[in-house]
Design goal:
elongated, mainly beta, 6-stranded parallel beta sheet, 19-stranded parallel beta sheet, 35 strands, 2 helices
Length: 470
């Protein structure tokens, strides 16, 4: 058996087991433990979608957390069918929100529905909590379309609460769900719909399981990321469907590293990157595995935007099927199935390092080629592609002939298309790589494009490039 495959299987098994192995005591989210339960209706929630039910729901959560602590078992806050309009809700230790099918938690659309500090703007947030979860088959809905100032098929223009002085920048809208500094988080059998900004935000958490979750955001809305994993360790994402405008699965490092993130068996569609590391990248990314993922009609498949000096290493992508296409250039990306870049964000930043990446059993149909771009201060090292089939064809009317370094760096730059576009690399291994050209055109006359004198230590074995045989 190929040693890369053996290494991958061992690595994947260890990562899948890591959250359970690292728990020093059984979590009260253990399904074998029968939960206590309280209903928001018994506390006065109306569920009519018009009246704010915040006080009733928060009172239920508070009492449920107290019950969980007293009885050393989880407590479920039950939401019967209905629409529960609310300001920010604070999820507490020991509590599972059980949102039943045909029940919706509906986020408010007024600035006064959210805390004073912009970093706490969530419809539902847990902070420094343990043994918390969300489930039930229902949905949490952020009413994202209510934040559209002008609808545009290219990219919507959004409301920004910075006009009120509440925050700075043009992304001042509430996120949907956040877990901050939490331990033992489980999110399953739930739908997150129409976020105004990021959808599910995992921040500085330990031992998080996200499975059988559906994320849907308006396809023309910017910044409605699917799942953002920030400075968190031992995270498992599996059997999730993500259909949204901006990045789908997005690990970031602002204040600490990310270790042991595994994402498997997911389906993704996005106008941006399906999987993207960065661009916030001040600390290391290490030990990430992405396996058995389908990416459809996305602007970019597998992406690295390392801009802040962080080091990336030991990342595995395997058994991934990708379709990427062009969208309007206001969205970052130029239809690359694989995009690996490191360069300084600005004059105050430095390039990070990217090394030891493996791409195993990858199939892609794309309007552009693979882009591998290190920089003078951040050379890409030890990249391996094994059993990769790339089919290149055009089917949209957007202009080609550009590479996209954004954010920062060089912006959009004229560059002829090629199967692999490469610069500033030391150590590249291509084995069993097929590049199929679906049409005969001058655009597709270069399978391997190197920037002179910047790509070294290359190994090519069983490489094929040719027209598709009808």
């Amino acid at each position: 058996m190929n040693p890369l495959i053996t290494l991958f299987r061992i690595h994947l098994l260890l990562l899948l087991l890591a959250p359970a192995l690292l728990q020093s005591r059984p979590s009260i989210l253990d399904e074998s433990v029968a939960p206590h339960s309280l209903s928001v209706v018994d506390y006065g929630a109306t569920g009519n979608g018009q009246q704010y039910d915040t006080v009733a729901i928060q009172s239920t959560i508070n009492d449920c957390s107290s019950a969980a602590a007293a009885h050393l078992r989880p407590c479920q806050v039950n939401f019967p069918p209905g629409k529960y309009l609310t300001a920010t809700l604070y999820l507490k230790s020991g509590v599972i929100l059980n949102i039943s099918r045909n029940a919706t938690i509906l986020g408010g659309t007024r600035l006064k529905d959210y805390p004073e500090k912009q970093e706490k703007w969530y419809v539902v947030v847990a902070e420094n909590a343990e043994d918390v979860g969300i489930t039930g088959g229902g949905e949490i809905n952020g009413q994202g379309l209510e934040f559209v100032k002008r609808f545009d098929e290219r990219k919507n223009v959004m409301v920004s609460w910075n006009e009120t002085g509440a925050c700075l920048g043009d992304e001042c809208r509430p996120r949907l769900v956040g877990f901050i500094g939490c331990r033992n988080v489980r999110i399953w059998d739930i739908s997150f719909n129409q976020p105004a900004y990021w959808c599910l935000h995992i921040v500085r958490c330990q031992n998080t399981s996200i499975h059988d979750v559906s994320v849907y955001g308006d396809f023309n809305t910017p910044n409605n990321d699917g799942i953002d994993i920030e400075d968190s360790n031992n995270t498992l994402i599996t059997r999730c469907t993500i259909d949204t405008g901006d990045d789908a699965i997005c690990p970031k490092t602002y204040t600490g590293p990310i270790y042991n993130l595994t994402a498997t068996n997911c389906w993704i569609k996005t106008k941006s990157s399906a999987i993207k590391l960065g661009s916030a990248s001040w600390y290391p990314f290490k030990g990430l595995v992405f396996d058995n993922i389908t990416i459809v009609e996305s602007h970019r498949g597998l992406g690295f935007q390392i801009r802040d000096g962080g080091d990336v290493s030991d990342i595995i992508f395997s058994n991934i099927n990708i379709t990427t296409r062009y969208y309007h250039e206001s969205w970052w990306g130029r239809a690359e199935p694989i995009y690996i870049t490191t360069c300084p964000r600005d004059s105050n930043s430095k390039a990070g390092s990217i090394s030891n990446l493996q791409f195993i059993n990858i199939t892609a149909t794309s309007e552009n080629g693979v882009f591998l771009s290190g920089s003078k201060g951040g050379v890409l090292r030890n990249l391996k592609f094994f059993n990769v089939k790339l089919t290149y064809k055009r089917w949209t009317n957007y202009a080609d002939g550009l590479v996209d370094y954004r954010p920062g760096c060089q912006g959009l730059v004229n560059h002829s298309s090629a199967g692999f576009m490469m610069e500033h690399i030391d150590g590249l291994n291509l084995e069993n790589v097929n590049m199929i050209w679906a049409e005969k055109t001058e655009r597709w006359n270069n399978p391997l494009n190197f920037r002179p004198s910047t790509v070294n230590n290359i190994s090519l074995l069983n490489i094929y490039s040719g027209l598709c045989q009808q």
